[in-house]
């Protein structure tokens, strides 16, 4: 892995795990010193992250961590409703028994994490949630759909979703997951699509309420 790829991967991971707060300025000079490289790979990495929407170019050398506003959130959720709903429909038709079993296992793991509430349980919930939704695309069997879906699932506010949920929100989300998995197990694509739409619309409404409360 060359210097540009190393820096890009490291900064991208930080952005996707909320290492930086929205609006944080990332300076080329500081990053070059931290990663012990010249500014050239830093600029190349920043350019790629800007093209992905994770960073915004600043007035001076460097970039700003892109803030997520209500409008951004709604757009991402609407796209997810369309793509994940379609993927869930295909998943109900084409997923292997092993893939469906893994979805059911994820449901069990997340439910147990919610009960136990061990240290870092929210991180475990977020990881499980991302894998569960990724399974729609895996089971659908469409490489193009999987690629499009992966980008939407890597949006920072999607990854950090469970950090703003209260206990009732989490319980509802887990019930939705179970019903989606059941619909897919039964091969009922329309039921699966409908539940995905219900699930993501509920999540979008939670983000809207939290944003309104902060304002």
How does this structure look, described?
The protein is mainly α. It has 2 domains: 63 residues, Orthogonal Bundle (Arc Repressor Mutant, subunit A); 145 residues, GntR ligand-binding domain-like (Four Helix Bundle (Hemerythrin (Met), subunit A)). The protein contains 10 helices and 3 strands; from the N terminus they run αβααββααααααα. Helix 9 packs antiparallel against helix 10.
Can you give me a brief rundown of this structure?
With 215 residues, the protein is mainly alpha-helical. The chain has two domains: 3-65, Winged helix-like DNA-binding domain superfamily/Winged helix DNA-binding domain (Arc Repressor Mutant, subunit A); 70-214, Four Helix Bundle (Hemerythrin (Met), subunit A).
List the main descriptive attributes of the protein structure presented here.
mainly alpha, 74% helix, three-stranded antiparallel beta sheet, globular, 215 residues, Arc Repressor Mutant, subunit A, Four Helix Bundle (Hemerythrin (Met), subunit A)
Strand fraction band?
under 5%
Q: Low-confidence spans: pLDDT under 50, at least 5 residues? A: none
Mean pLDDT, nearest integer?
89
Number of strands: 3
Number of domains: 2
Topology:
Elements: H1 3-16, E1 25-26, H2 28-35, H3 39-51, E2 55-57, E3 63-65, H4 70-94, H5 97-116, H6 121-140, H7 143-153, H8 156-159, H9 167-185, H10 189-214
Antiparallel strand pairs: 1-3, 2-3
Helix pairs in contact: 1-3, 2-3, 4-6, 4-7, 4-9, 4-10, 5-6, 5-9, 6-7, 9-10
């Amino acid at each position: 892995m060359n210097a540009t790829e190393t820096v890009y991967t490291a900064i991208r991971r930080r952005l996707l795990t909320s290492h930086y707060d929205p609006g944080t300025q990332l300076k080329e000079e500081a990053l070059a010193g931290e990663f012990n490289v010249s500014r050239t790979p830093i600029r190349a990495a920043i350019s790629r992250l800007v093209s992905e929407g994770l960073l915004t170019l600043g007035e001076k050398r460097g970039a700003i961590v892109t803030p997520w506003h209500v409008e951004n959130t709604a757009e991402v959720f609407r796209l997810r409703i369309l793509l994940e709903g379609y993927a869930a429909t295909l998943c109900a038709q084409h997923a292997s028994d092993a893939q469906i079993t893994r979805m059911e296992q994820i449901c069990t793991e997340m439910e147990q994490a919610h009960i136990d509430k061990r240290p870092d349980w929210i991180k475990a919930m977020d990881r499980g949630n991302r894998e569960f939704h990724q399974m729609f695309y895996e089971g659908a069997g469409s490489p193009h759909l999987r690629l499009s879906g992966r980008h939407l699932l890597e949006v920072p506010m999607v990854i950090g979703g469970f950090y703003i949920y209260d206990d009732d929100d989490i319980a509802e989300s887990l019930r939705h997951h179970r019903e989606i998995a059941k619909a897919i197990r039964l091969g009922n694509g329309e039921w699966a699509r409908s539940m995905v739409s219900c699930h993501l619309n509920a999540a979008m409404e939670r983000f809207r309420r939290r944003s309104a409360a902060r304002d």
